[in-house]
Write a structure and sequence with these properties.
By secondary structure, this protein is an alpha+beta fold. The chain has helices spanning about 5-15, 80-85, and strands at about 30, 40, 55-65, 65-75, 85-90. A 3-stranded antiparallel beta sheet has the order 3-4-5. It starts with 5 loop residues before the first helix and ends in a 9-residue tail after the last strand.
């Protein structure tokens, strides 16, 4: 498990009854192509010289018995949305009658 998830793992496991599945790698590339061929950051947060987020943290946005949702953030105390959040991880209990995607 990535150390990134350690601060929220115990709380998450206490709040949900489903298995918590977490990635073994999180992309931290912060630059996207622009019309002038000069990559630009897609959110306004501190970056390393090579175009990666300087800091990455995780916060629990939703946690119930049968579901959870985690926000990947590129700044501490991120208010979410497009300010500094760059990803979302979610898990949900699935039943036979759960619609497929």
């Amino acid at each position: 498990m990535l150390p990134l998830f350690q601060p929220v793992l115990t709380q998450l496991q206490e709040q949900t009854q489903i298995p918590v599945v977490l990635p073994t790698w999180v992309p931290t590339d912060a630059l996207v192509p622009s019309p002038d061929d000069k990559p630009q950051p897609y959110i306004d947060v501190p970056l390393t010289r090579d175009g990666h987020f300087q800091q990455v943290s995780v916060s629990i946005t939703t946690s119930t018995r049968g579901a959870y949702e985690l926000s990947l953030n590129a700044a501490p105390n991120c208010p979410g949305a497009f300010h500094c959040s760059f990803g979302l991880l979610a898990g949900q209990q699935v039943y036979r009658d759960t619609p497929s995607i």
